[in-house]
Design brief:
The complex is a heterodimer of chains A (about 110) and B (about 120). Chain A is mainly β and about 110 residues long. Chain A has no helices and eleven strands. In chain A, strands 2, 4, 5, 9, 10 and 11 form a six-stranded mixed beta sheet that branches. A five-stranded antiparallel beta sheet of chain A has the order 1-3-8-7-6, with no helix packed on it. Chain B is built from one helix and eleven strands. The longest helix of chain B is centred in the last third of the chain and has 4 residues. Chain B starts with a strand and ends with a strand. The chains are: A mainly beta (about 110), B mainly beta (about 120). At the A-B interface, β4, β5 and β9 of A face β4, β5 and β10 of B.
Chain lengths: ~110, ~120
């Protein structure tokens, strides 16, 4: 059975800290891995990764994929209170075309 | 503005009642999806539709029904057969095709369903 495992499940840091969120996957037909940020409502798209070793960056956020070891990380540098959210990792590759989500990492950034 | 809208924001269901959640998109996306999110859980797929007048069951379709009569709309009905409907329901859409555009799903703001 395909699955996506995120760690840690929750994390509390202080403003200015750097955090690394982990996502490992066991899937049979990998096409891509996606990261979303979910605050109160809808998940918002952050990154999509398809190739190993190529880092994607957007401001203070960056992500990289290792297809050999079957994991991805999401880095956030110089965290701010506005980064507090649940970060979801999802794999795309099933025959249904849907995304298979991990349970998420809840990040809390304290002032 | 382009986007996905869901209504209502909150919905209360009585025992034995069917309720319908609305999802509309003006992104011209071909594919639409319904997910359910429970506390501490990831999103689980209920139903999806890749084209008008066609839809497929996801992992947890029992107790739910959908229709796709128009490209823009994908309503979800929670029937009385769904014994534990209290959850946060998210609708998503993606463009058909290949590559990154197809894989990326965009989400509506969600509907929170509560049982009275």
């Amino acid at each position: 059975e395909d699955k996506v495992v995120q760690s840690p499940l929750s994390l509390v840091v202080h403003e200015g800290d750097t955090v690394t969120l982990n996502c490992s996957y066991e899937v049979t037909n990998f096409r891509s891995l996606l990261w979303y940020k979910q605050e109160k409502k809808a998940p918002t798209f952050l990154f999509m990764l398809t190739s190993s070793g190529i880092e994607k960056k957007s401001g203070r956020l960056s992500s990289i994929l290792d297809k050999k070891e079957l994991f991805s990380i999401l880095n956030i540098t110089a965290t701010q209170t506005g980064d507090s959210a649940v970060y979801l990792c999802a794999y795309a590759g099933g025959s249904q075309g849907n995304l298979i989500f991990g349970k998420g990492t809840k990040l809390s950034v304290k002032p | 503005d382009g986007g996905i809208t869901q209504s209502p924001k909150y919905l209360f269901r009585k025992e034995g009642q069917n309720v319908t959640l609305s999802c509309e998109q003006n992104l011209n996306h071909d594919a639409m999806y319904w997910y359910r999110q429970d506390p501490g859980q990831g999103l689980r797929l209920i139903y999806y539709s890749q084209i008008v007048n066609d839809f497929q069951k996801g992992d947890i379709a029992e107790g739910y029904s959908v229709s796709r009569e128009k490209k823009e709309s994908f309503p979800l009905t929670v029937t009385s057969a769904q014994k534990n409907p209290t959850a946060f329901y998210l609708c998503a859409s993606s463009m058909d095709g290949r590559g990154e555009v197809r894989e990326t799903q965009y989400f509506g703001p969600g509907t929170r369903l509560l049982v009275l």
